[in-house]
Amino acid sequence: MKAFAALYRELDASTSSLAKQAALQRYLRVVPPQDAAWAVYFLAGGKPRQLVPTKLLRTLAQEAAGLPEWLFDESYEAVGDLAETIALLLPPPTQWHERGLAEWVEQQLLPLRKAPPEQVAAALRLQWQQLAPDERFVYFKLITGGFRVGVSRLQVTQALAAVGGIDAKSVAQRLMGYTHLGGQPTADDYAALIAPEHAGEQARETSGQPYPFFLAHPFNLALEAFDAALGPPADWLVEWKWDGIRAQLVKRAGQVWLWSRGEELVTDRYPELAAMGAMLPDGTVLDGEIVVWRDGRVQPFAELQKRIGRKTLGTKLLRELPVVLLAYDLLEWQARDLRAQPQVERRALLDALLADAPHPSLVASPVLVADHWEDFARQRESARAMGVEGMMLKQRGAQYGVGRTKDVGTWWKWKIAPLSIDAVLIYAQRGHGRRASLYSDYTFAVWDGAPGEPERKLVPFAKAYSGLTDAEMARVDAVIRKTTVESFGPVRSVRPTLVFELGFEGIARSPRHKSGIAVRFPRMLRWREDKTIADADTLQTLAALLPG
Amino acid sequence: MVMPAPSTPDAASRPGDLVVARPEGLYCPPGDFYIDPWRPVERAVITHAHSDHARVGHRHYLAHTDSAGTLRTRLGAEINLQTLAYGEALDHHGVRVSLHPAGHVLGSAQVRLELGGRVWVASGDYKTEADGTCAPFEPVRCDAFITESTFGLPIYRWPTQAALCAEIDAWWRSNAETGRASVLFCYAFGKAQRILHGVDASIGPLIVHGAVEPLNAVYRTAGVALPPTLHASDPRVDAQLLRRALVLAPPSAQGTPWMKRFGDCADAFASGWMQLRGTRRRRGVDRGFVMSDHADWPGLQSAIRGTGAERVLVTHGSVAVLVRWLSEQGLDAQAFKTEYGDEDVADKAAEGVVSETSP
């Protein structure tokens, strides 16, 4: 635990990726394999299920710190992170321990999940008496399920590859599924991650393992530059960019697995896709997008979200919000890994498969055709009306790479410009983590009447917290403090003075919002210091952006 | 600070109060003078020479002897300044005025006022742990105590001076071993001298920014032991020397062309705000050292208790939090509105945590 806490500190403090890589390798080389197994699990994004209810943890920590609830809350607000707050407030440790990470996780932390509250309380008190302050921070992060540190999965993959002396692509493949929710990696699992490569090492026929996803890069050039940058359109396979959930459907040994890009196994969430997968021959892996599909067209992401949140899927919900897999790639066919095949050949095999095994829940993502980039640009103008985010440009000869790479071929995402509107900041809330103590999360409003209309009011319609530079945020923070009208816990209402241009990707009607409208991915495009609040847009201008 | 509870009572002055809040600053009615006023007044008692407490434009200044050099440098040599040693008293309109160590920076003082057997103490800024560069904080018995609250939350607990210096030494040593200069951003007045006084000067040369050296001179004149320092533009400072050097610079130097001379260096920031991971990360340096010249939460509690005061008036920082906490402890606590940066943001900006320019 001490070594892992020290590694965390080092990774957290450093801004250099070289230094982080060195720290990771150093750590993996010296710790026992069972500790490395858990470290990789956490660093690569694995999370145990929540071990202790937050409320209970807060109560116990507050008691141990000897503080009234309001003062604990004030502290939490200033820190912006529960684990850190508790670590800072507890009295210094009184004991000492020598246990490693695996022992802590397996024998101390995981048993907390099913224990009755009194037992949890006793165990926690005993545990934190033994932990030094920087260990405590990591410990509480693990307990609250909020463990995150500034290393990417790719960096972890590279460190493992270096330690094992093997190819990073093999490690990426082996890591698939390693971090699934509730996983319990062992020393053997870790050894398998860094073991020497052997031929046909994946027992592919029976495993549910997906392939590492190949990711696209943003493409924002002006149309005139396309020919020079990309060559002729004939070199590219062009498709719509769908706004859904990226997923791989794996069918092997009579079983179906559906993996989201976050490496979550989501088979149970989409029974219609599981049923479709069961019809596919063994040794098939499809790559595509899960979307809600009605009347022969894709529905807004908001519709899909209604399914994501549900614990149980009733027949009514399944009927009203049917999903399909919009397939655009075939990664495995007849138990053969196709990823080294050129894009067009994989696509041809995919089309053949779709023709042979038609199923209402399996839809081909159409290939778009044009002779000139100008024609594509014209087609792309209908993207918003179609409910898509833009176009994907895939090199015809591209292999299916690992992650966001360009070494074996490239995928570009050519997104449409966001919708935008000028809105007024009316509430502010303190941020978390890096922005703790700064008012960085804002609620925005538009007018409910045209300029000049008496008694028109500001109606909140979106929250946004990204898009400003640190310097801008500090200035906005200062204005918020000066114009505060009221405070409700961590939220402040302000006298409206600030206008921002908000960008968003999609817009839909929503009875759940006060404004009657919900926007997707709202963010601040810029601070309109040149505008007064009277210049901000209205609900009418917002409604005019609604599709259809 | 946001208060979930009813709003903080502002100190409504009571008959016979020795200090009241006025738009110009904290005011002593029977003595007809101000303490650290932020608007020009006839007579000002200055607790210490930091710019938010010592401002220009007063007709008469009274401060501790050790503040004289800094005050004259910062406010002008011609200011009308009278000085007192710690414990020395003068009488003004019947109010007995004396200064007592506040442990904040060189020359920092608590102001003790006595009239007709009643004693009030205005503490300015203070720190309870001794650091060897200024007279350590002394609790002064009083009926009413005016306290700051910059770090008035229980999350703020400082490491000891020894532990802090050991951390800085270890960081410096490991950088020196890999041939990289260690640039440590800190306040030029107070913190820089504490660091110089506390680190192990045998690790390598000590180099300071132009803003730091004049203050070193003030400290040395006052008899504070500081190891030899080199000005960054000294011709003796070459690449070879820099590889093992500890460089002290004010926060404003971060990201400026001045930094170029250090090449690939490690950087760090020394401030009480570095206690929080969020501010540490926002600062964008390799390391954050938790170091403040203000009292931490336990320091505030012990200082307040040590005065025996039943009435406590809270100024700049976490005012609402400290007032409520002290009230719950049975003290008669109230807020005093001041312009020493009564919001946490102002102090953070002053400490350089909120970056003024985009990185």
**Which CATH architecture of the largest domain in chain A would you pick?**
2-Layer Sandwich
- Overall outline of chain B: globular
How would a crystallographer describe the biggest sheet of chain B?
7 strands, mixed
Biggest β-sheet of chain A: count, sense, barrel?
A: 7 strands, mixed
Number of domains of chain A: 3
Describe this structure in words.
The complex is a heterodimer of chains A (548) and B (359). With 548 residues, chain A is of the alpha+beta class. Chain A has three domains: 143 residues, Orthogonal Bundle (DNA ligase i, domain 1); 199 residues, D-amino Acid Aminotransferase, Chain A, domain 1, CATH 3.30.470; 125 residues, OB fold (Dihydrolipoamide Acetyltransferase, E2P), CATH 2.40.50.140. In chain A, 37% of the residues lie in helices and 22% in strands. In chain A, strands 3, 4, 5, 6, 7, 8 and 9 form a seven-stranded mixed beta sheet that branches. In chain A, strands 13, 14, 15, 16, 17, 18 and 21 form a seven-stranded antiparallel beta sheet that branches. In chain A, strand 5 and strand 6 form a beta hairpin. Chain A is globular, with a radius of gyration of 26 Å. The model of chain A has no long low-confidence stretch (mean pLDDT 89). With 359 residues, chain B is α/β, with parallel strands linked by helices. Chain B folds into two domains: 195 residues, Metallo-beta-lactamase, Chain A (4-Layer Sandwich); 129 residues, Rossmann fold. Helices cover 23% and strands 23% of the residues of chain B. Chain B is built from nine helices and 19 strands. In chain B, the strands form three sheets. In chain B, strands 7-8-9-10-11-18-19 form a seven-stranded mixed beta sheet, with helices on one face. In chain B, strands 1-2-3-4-5-6 form a six-stranded mixed beta sheet, with no helix packed on it. Chain B has a six-stranded parallel beta sheet with strand order 14-13-15-12-16-17, covered by helices on one side. The N terminus and C terminus of chain B are likely disordered. Classes of the chains: A alpha+beta (548), B alpha/beta (359). At the A-B interface, helix 5, helix 6 and helix 20 of A face helix 6, helix 8 and helix 9 of B.
